[in-house]
Amino acid sequence: MLPENASASNGTVVEGGGDKLQCGNSPNSSSSSASIESLKQPDMMAKETTLSGKVSGADEQQELILLNHHPDNDGDKAQIVFFLSETAASAGIPRPDATNDLPALEERETWAKKAEFLLAVIGFAVDLGNVWRFPYICYKNGGGAFLIPYVVMMVFGGLPLFYMELALGQFHRSGCLTLWRRICPALKGVGYAICIIDFYMGMYYNTIIGWAVYYFVASFTSELPWTSCDHPWNTNSCALVGPVDNGTFVRSPAQEYFERNVLENYLSDGLDDIGPIKWSLALCVFAVFILVYFSLWKGVRSTGKAVWITAVAPYIVLIILLIRGASLPGAGDGIRYFLTPQWSKLAETKVWTDAASQVFFSLGPGFGTLLALSSYNKFHNNCFYDALLTSSINLATSLLAGFVIFAVLGYMAEIRNVSIDQLGLEGPGLVFVVYPEAIATMAGSTFWSMIFFFLLITLGLDSTFGGLEAMITGLCDEYPVLLGRRRELFVGVLLVFIYLCALPTTTYGGMYLVDLLNVYGPGIAILFLVFVEAMGVSWCYGTQRFSNDIESMLGFQPGPFWKITWAYVSPIFILLIFICTLVDPVPLDTQDYTYPAWSIKVGWVLTAIPLSCIPVYMIYKFGITKGSFTQRLVKMFTPEDTSDPRNLSQISLTARDAVGPSSVGHHSTSYGTQV
Question: How far apart are CA 656 and CA 652, in angstroms?
């Protein structure tokens, strides 16, 4: 309940019916409040009550319409709409733009607990790459010596971008699309590009989780199906040993199980003929989408509950696997192989570019997820502390995963009598072939298999939650009436569409599509998008203005280090990775398969589609903006909405308290725009 005569932000008053609504900005206050006691009276239960008067110091009358309880409504609904003119904008409240769907004038939903936000961010940053890529990159680039370039790149490149996105989302309280109206309208195409990249991710990343689900279900047997060569899918090349005398390799039961039973890629001719859908695999992927839906449909209310399992469970499992792995023969050799420093490697440029690339893709700026998750924070949350904590946990988790993986690789190398680098140490082959093969030789193998693949499922789910939430939050914020009010339906329709698009990755040749999407979907385009984002924030919006925003949230200005890295170091950091990736792209061809030339061209088209959103939207924005050529350019690169995001939240809160425990919704305004 509101206090009587609550103080205003700048003395702007709307009077009528003996009640006052005070709103606006003030250098001495950051809140907006109201006293509308009469709305609690029984006679105010009518369909519509209008409170009107004059804005002090303005020439035009403003109206506040409150729609109270609707007798024919199932829920306890309350709707609030401001009819504002240009003069009201001078009081700190922007006039609705008839050409855009503005975000709902409502108190934005926030995380129920600070821990839920931290777990969601950690869960997004810590993904499958921490298990199957970081250990390999570390040992290949100098072992323990690799930690030096990794930490340097994290401090000067990854962490500033990570902090920047958390602060942007928390201050502006909006997703990857609406955000750009408040930063640089011309670059709104970056937001649409992010949505496309997240769509790519949803198409193939959930399929990889589906493979883990397939293995998890297959583990509920008395003997793991990749233990022996006595199954219908095995060939004469299957054997339980390492290399033969002539230097060629036989195929292990685990390798044949993955390739000939899970994927059955031998039944396809590659991308030229990917074959029919494997329905058992499609069902596993469908189960993943079901889990994703019920974790996202209610927004942070459902995601916040899910991350208590999906973000915490991996650490429990990693610790259990580390204890088990450390007890195996050869584990010490594996860990020494992982950490032994090769100082000469530090002189190689490739080591530093690999460190920069690993830092970037591990922390995950640019995917819109950090913006979306932090937009549900309380305004004065210490996002600086969050950035330091979560990035440090991400590094520690990568090291922990390295110990877990290399302890078992050392064991495998000993029982197969081969060197560790002959085991196949990177990518899906590590977690779906080498590690399962090691598990099959342990006592209680079915238990260890179940918890290992449960680990992969939870790691993957957290990341796919984050990527899809970025797209959902961005679109719901941008189109609040069309999508925001129907989030549950929208999320369902979106996931069904993504699942249908993902079905080709569940065919016999689906793995080739997964690799193609992984390299040419987000792999290259996301680097350029983050570069544009960093330049837009630092040079269009302004580093000092951004620092002032942070000060209003945290109570202190970022130091010179952060301002310099945002303006110069981080953009250069990203640009160099982008150039190196273009010059030396990730090879797709393998020993067993050469990708056709047309597929590489399709891959570059996939890369070009999100990148084209930036110039296309600039041209569109230029065309709809009024004025001369110079005036249009100035308007395009000047923030359209400069109001303090705290105002809308506080005004909404007071209106909600005035009418009781109901939810604030949307209604059409006299300008023909729905708010």
Answer: 6
Residue owning tokens 């001719």: 269
C-beta of residue 44 within 8 angstroms of C-beta of residue 38: yes
pLDDT per position as a tens digit, 220-244: 998 999 998 889 999 888 887 554 4
Supply 230's token pair.
């006595």
Distance CA 410, CA 161 (A): 36
Residues with Cβ within 8 Å of residue 148, at least 6 apart in sequence: 346
Residue whose pair of structure tokens reads 């995601």 in the numeric block = 303
Instruction: Give the position of tokens 């993902």.
Output: 502
Ramachandran category for residue 600: left, alpha or beta (phi over 0 → left; psi -120 to 50 → alpha) = alpha
Whole-angstrom CA distances from 561 to 94, 160, 532, 630 are 34, 9, 21, 34
**Among 305-319, 382-396, 430-444, 574-588, where is mean pLDDT lowest?**
574-588
Q: Which two tokens stand for residue 86?
A: 């240009």
Residue 244, φ and ψ in degrees, nearest 5: -95, 180
Per-residue pLDDT tens for 632-673? 999 999 998 666 666 544 443 433 343 343 333 333 332 222
pLDDT of residue 358: 87
Angle, vertex CA 296, rays to CA 661 and CA 529, nearest 5: 115
The answer to whether residue 54 scores a pLDDT higher than 60 is no
What whole-number distance in Å separates Cα of residue 651 and Cα of residue 105?
Answer: 8
The residue with tokens 């409240």 is 93
Q: Identify whether the C-beta of residue 160 lies closer than 8 Å to the C-beta of residue 565.
A: yes
- What's the pLDDT band for 84 if we cut at 50, 70, 90? very low
Question: 522-535 vs 159-172: helix axis angle to the nearest 10?
Answer: 70
Q: Please indicate whether residue 43 or residue 122 has the higher confidence score (pLDDT).
A: 122
Identity of the amino acid at 195? C
* Residues linked to residue 65 through DSSP beta bridges, in sequence order: 50, 81
Which has the closest alpha carbon to 498: 471, 479, 525, 460? 471
Decide the pairing of beta strands 13-16 and 33-35: unpaired
Give dist(CA 612, CA 197) in Å, integer: 12
Res 581: pLDDT = 84
**Separation of alpha carbons 475 and 192, rounded Å:** 9
Helices and strands (H and E) in the chain: how many: 27, 7
Contact between residue 623 and residue 99 where contact means Cβ atoms under 8 Å apart? no
Per-residue pLDDT of 146-194, as tens digits, reads 889 999 999 998 999 999 999 999 999 999 999 999 999 999 999 999 9
Tokens of 626: 């009024």
Q: Does the global pTM surpass 0.85?
A: no
DSSP annotation string for 100-132? S-PPPSSPPP--SSHHHHHHHHHHHHS-HHHHH
Would you state the pLDDT for residue 106?
53
Instruction: Say how far apart CA 316 and CA 268 lie, in whole Å.
Output: 39
